[in-house]
Fold 2-dehydro-3-deoxy-D-gluconate 5-dehydrogenase.
Amino acid sequence: MNLPATFHDLSGTSVFITGGGSGIGASLTEGFLRQGARVAFVQRSESGAFCDEMERATGTRPLFIPCDITDVAALKAAVDRAAEAQGPITVLVNNAANDERHRTLDVDEDFWDRSTGINLKAYFFAAQAVIPGMQAAGGGSIINFSSISYMMGNAGYPAYVAANSGINGLTRALAREFGPDRIRVNALAPGWVLTQKQRDLWVTPEGLAAHIDRQCLKDSLAPEDIVGGALFLASDLSRMMTGQALVIDGGVVVTG
């Protein structure tokens, strides 16, 4: 990963990333490591090989903590472990999500609860877990990954779209409540990022061509295209930015 800028104030920062071992999350972990940050991440799947790769590439090994983020007690324990190992967490990146396709008439209560547990509930409780440490440290940055799905009103995954809209509301509410503590809370909404999972499950030549046709910029998005926005929101360069949604989608939705 070649980043065209360095965010010097992130060096030594304790960063916690959910889903930081694959997809966009893996690029986020690498991006923060390349700034000299101390990165801890949670992931359900084994990530030892990824940690080895990051240590070779950046000279620093991230702290991997196996965790199912829908288990709130385990998530809070992971936050505590990361803070004990790497210092008070002052950057939280709520990245983990599951955009499994589904049809409204097929959704039962268990699926709904599981989907919102991953895509919204875990965001709230991760934030709740890190906020006391941020208050004690004099501030911090929480970055909640959403997507443009709720802005577009996409069909095909209504529980996911609902959660993404909820993330936007949660972001604004937390920004207002904890602004006096100098805790900034922003959302980051990517467009269709071509992770390996997307390529394996949902990308078709026709679908991708139609989507890129809607973009102002005619290149597909890769995970590393999202990293700069996250680093900016974590850095003091965005010190007076909170309660906002930063869209990185190649210009599908035009906000303002």
Q: What stands out?
A: DSSP finds nine helices and seven strands in the chain. Residues 247 and 254 are 9 Å apart (CA to CA). The chain has one domain: 8-194+223-248.
